[in-house]
């Protein structure tokens, strides 16, 4: 099956290129009877929107979602939910400079080799613009999940790291600054850092962390579809992601079992949570938490050499309005993908017992 | 769809509990006409087998695979391939001590809550014994992939890390020691370390790294089924895995774009390979490499307190023949899962162009 | 997985209610490099369009398809193809008469019971208006299939049957009359019959037959996904279909093996074709042919009694602009579904051998 | 995805060739907590077994099923259920006569062309022997479905037809004769007819009808996965099936809407049931009933001419122990496939509403 669908039961299929007439998608498998708040879906889209602050791309794009089906009198009906986001910023750019050349660390070369053709306008399908559709579906999934609270935030920009466990952070403060880092002092530093990087025409990577609270026990489908395996895939499917770890993560690989095991309290909760809320691939009711590593954006506002289709060396000049650091805008995308996984596994878990 | 299948086109479905009568599986979607070397499949199983060396579990289990279908006169026929691994070591143990109790950081609690019932003998379905079936299928996938060379090795045991890029290692030396670390000095140290940990009844985590060479350009299915996203899921679905990173990984998130971008050579290869052989979710022909973090095994040969089904505190004593460190035996499992992903994506890529 | 997708590799996902703002869909898995003729896709839609002739519903709806993605410079790019058909005829009707009542032999009752809510405007999702999206995708599939020629036609209206094998018909004459029956005399009689039925406010069923020529040998995926099994499902998924038979069909069940077996010619073709071009679930290169039975449309322009949500008897009056007989407009839908199956199986068959 | 799996949530994957060492399968997605009666599963297998009566093949094969996993202390555990049926009757036959030749109306030719190789022993994978695995899984599905009662029976052998609606038959009498026709007089005639056909070395087709009672309202997944569409596919996937019709079926296509519509009673049941218990693709609680047409078995005990791989004419002689008419043994297979569909849709329907 082709790769533009995500989820087994709560399924999102997306389409759309960066500079096509519209992006859109279909959400299938959403149960009937969910109260839909369209406005809060649009708000999630606004959190991802270009031009929202001084540290993200200044491209103007309202990203307004329109639903065509599956919602009636304010509720989901159980039928497939189609939605469209028009591209209003389709200027007739001159793309001749990238049409026949491959930008380094972009998908130009691989798309061309794989498909024999590529929509070269703004990265085409490989553009992160596609994630707008994920945010729409994730926002709907959140409305289904109700009590489950998903909070992503920026915990690293370049070498600047928020070295505190999430339990010591005030997660209500994430949206109080444009970096989306819940530590205000760190946020200020990160903001200054990002601006400095941009002023050089450079970019920098970062880390998004995510915490999920109030997860019901039982989500996860052994043996291949363990909850963390699907979360990992979901995160790794986001543009620019290079790594995923949950619970004790890579650090956990350095520990002894006698330190790492999570002893039980008598109510079934655990005294520690190195497991990250998942044991044997199934949620145990404790908080789920994980980290997602993003590489630096490949588009630099600098002059550089690369090759064209024939393998000739050509000189190019990065231009346009690009993100110097992707993590502030990645926060709602990470949340959306987490919501899609949880919605899917919430439904799957309804089938565990007769 | 239930979680015991992996792959879209080259599909593995597995079954079997740790102490049931047999494990087995079905490989579906394997093209016809592949020459099958049963002996080399058995050799892969032997690399994973308990009792193979002094630093792994001493449990005796021959793990002999028997194929029932889909192979005729030495070739695959295009029909589904069923195989069985009998459990010969099914002693009538006394399981009363774990029947009603939940071992910490195992899947006892979550299976019981999810399904309302669990096969408590040796961990049941949550046992890593299940991965034997993955090794069988992965070994067949390797035979289909022919020129593609997958090499996994141990690069970390506890805090002991092999701090060399794979390009400085002699990957032909992986099997020359029982740790499966290609650096002989480090291997010796790791071996001693694992034995020390075991002598205390403790366990320790580790890292398996993997390098894939000779990958054709074009493997990967945007946007959700990016090649590294599926590799990540595959690895995270292995028991005890806590993290996955590819290419520059978590370290890449600290870098500047100007350092991280992989400049092209005129033949389409790149001068550096921070991308890890994958751009936009599609292989670019460079080496793929990634790291997989394993937590320490949860079963300690120590006395500890935990709870029973009613939430009462009970004392337990870990016993039996367990791995003090899982990574040496995880090496063939990581390779097998990588092979399954590549086989699947190799077939998917046949459909990219008309 | 939810039920709004069709196909494994060449996949169509649709959305849209009869009286919503738009219908649409996503075609995923279409290989790159196919020359797309948008105009001929629109022509297929026009063959299905309401108001096209005097024997179909007189509802006015232009049914113009707009593509948003996946096609670039006249070719498919290998990315997902999103399309939308706006509903221009969304009058603010008064639906109070059907809002709380269940029309007999419609899906009003079952949708309400299954989902607890239904979009009652014009049948909502259960309306055959949804099949417009199938025609779009099927038309694209036809362009991929090139030499394969799919010809559906009306072979029965009520008790009026075209008792000739397809080999005695001139299939180029199907579109030469509004019934879409290749026998001109029969077509005239059927047309008169349909008009007579409509004049009484009644409806009548019918049969659509289909012939597929130039099918490559090898399409079909044993054992569950036999080619005719998927064709059968495809046809039975069309609104109002009650039966499917291929090759010798129900008549074949009365025959002796000695009469039914298709003897080979020396070139691998067969002297007879009771098999209907499929043996063991796999195409053998002979013509595929099958019949599809449609029930009479449930909406009558008559007065009748039925029940409301509370089970009270209520009187209703059928009105509006409905098809007296669905088969003339079903012809392009049958072809579209056949094209979708063949496109999917054409791609699947690329994977049969290494 | 390859074609050896059936079902989305309650999934069966099968393997095995006619003359391989064993057949088997995996049932995945079966909920935990179902009481499993192994003996009654074996009884269903016995209903399908060769050699069970004087009118079926006299091949000796005990067809004993062994379960390897997923059942513990008499209950399903929610993990995948592996089972194996050993082939005990694998004589070292001489297959040289069919190795290089194509038998008419078998799958010899199409398998060879599709896969480039075929297991020619006894038809290999194309043999109806594979359906034994379906019966195992179907029998388990029946145990999950509890109150739902599925009754298949023979309603036609050649031109001999049981022209009574099921409502006039005593379905408890199906197993009282070896034909499995609930009308005892007709059963006797059919038995004599089958024996006569066999005595000539010929075969004959037939019809299996099926009635499903106590179906919950709401089973069915519009728009592509309508309940009858999946039932149709299930039946058409059985060896030798040429047609499927449900409710009014092909006859319904000749009717007027005013006769065909099923008027409601005040309790939501309908006065007539031309709909066959399904409206808009969703069960309405009325009886589901359908007919399945089987062609005559292709293997005749006669001398005939055919071609070899090089297209040369060769003379062959049918021999062995084959069914003269497949329908008596097809009855449990039809029931099994119906049970698999219902089990799957029963689980899917749990997800319709939040």
Automatic annotation (TrEMBL), chains A, B, C, D:
Job of this protein: This reaction introduces a second double bond into the aromatic ring system.
Q: Give the reactions, separated by semicolons, that this protein catalyses.
A: 5-O-(1-carboxyvinyl)-3-phosphoshikimate = chorismate + phosphate
Recite the UniProt cofactor note for this protein: Reduced FMN (FMNH(2)).
Record's CDD domains? Answer: Chorismate_synthase
Binding-site residues for FMN, renumbered to this chain? 125-127, 239-240, 280, 295-299, 321
Q: Which NCBIfam families match?
A: aroC (TIGR00033), PRK05382.1 (NF003793)
Range of residues in the leader sequence: none
Q: Which gene encodes it?
A: aroC
Pathway membership of this protein?
Answer: Metabolic intermediate biosynthesis; chorismate biosynthesis; chorismate from D-erythrose 4-phosphate and phosphoenolpyruvate: step 7/7
Note the InterPro entries from the entry: Chorismate_synth, Chorismate_synth_AroC_sf, Chorismate_synthase_CS
* Species classification: Bacteria, Pseudomonadati, Bacteroidota, Flavobacteriia, Flavobacteriales
- EC number of the protein: 4.2.3.5
Q: Where does NADP(+) bind?
A: 48
Protein name per UniProt = Chorismate synthase
Q: How does it assemble?
A: Homotetramer.
Keyword terms, alphabetized: Amino-acid biosynthesis, Aromatic amino acid biosynthesis, FAD, Flavoprotein, FMN, Lyase, NADP
Q: Which domain of life is it from?
A: Bacteria
Q: What is its cofactor?
A: FMNH2
Q: Which family is annotated?
A: Belongs to the chorismate synthase family.
């Amino acid at each position: 099956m082709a790769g533009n669908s995500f989820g087994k039961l709560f399924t999102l299929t997306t389409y759309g290129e960066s500079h096509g007439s519209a992006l859109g998608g279909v959400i299938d498998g959403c149960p009937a009877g969910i109260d839909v708040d369209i406005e809060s879906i649009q708000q999630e889209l606004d959190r991802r929107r270009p031009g929202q602050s001084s540290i993200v791309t200044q491209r103007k794009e309202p990203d307004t979602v329109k639903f065509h089906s599956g919602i009636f009198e304010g509720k989901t009906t159980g039928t497939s939910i189609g939605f469209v986001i028009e591209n209003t910023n389709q200027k007739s750019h001159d793309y001749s400079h990238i049409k026949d050349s491959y930008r380094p660390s972009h998908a130009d070369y691989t798309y061309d080799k794989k498909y024999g053709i590529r929509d070269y306008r703004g990265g085409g399908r490989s553009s992160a613009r596609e994630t707008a559709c994920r945010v729409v579906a994730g926002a709907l999934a959140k409305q289904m999940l109700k009590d489950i609270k998903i909070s992503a935030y920026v915990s690293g920009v370049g070498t600047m790291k928020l070295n505190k466990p999430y339990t010591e952070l005030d997660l209500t403060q994430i949206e109080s600054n444009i970096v989306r880092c819940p530590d205000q002092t760190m946020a200020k530093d990160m903001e200054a850092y990002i601006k400095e990087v941009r002023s050089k025409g450079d970019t920098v990577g970062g880390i998004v962390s995510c915490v999920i609270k109030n997860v019901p026990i039982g989500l996860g489908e052994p043996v291949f579809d363990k909850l963390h395996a699907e979360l990992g895939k979901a995160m790794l499917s986001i543009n620019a992601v290079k790594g995923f770890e949950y619970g004790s993560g890579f650090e956990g690989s350095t520990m002894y079992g006698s330190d790492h095991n999570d002893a039980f309290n008598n109510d079934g909760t655990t005294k520690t949570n190195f497991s990250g809320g998942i044991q044997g691939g199934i949620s145990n009711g404790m908080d789920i938490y994980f980290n997602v590593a993003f590489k630096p954006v490949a588009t630099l506002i600098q002059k550089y050499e690369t090759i064209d289709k024939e393998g000739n060396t050509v000189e190019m000049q990065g231009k346009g309005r690009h993100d110097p650091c992707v993590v502030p805008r990645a926060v709602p995308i990470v949340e959306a993908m987490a919501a899609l996984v949880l919605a899917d596994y919430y439904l799957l878990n309804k089938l565990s017992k007769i």
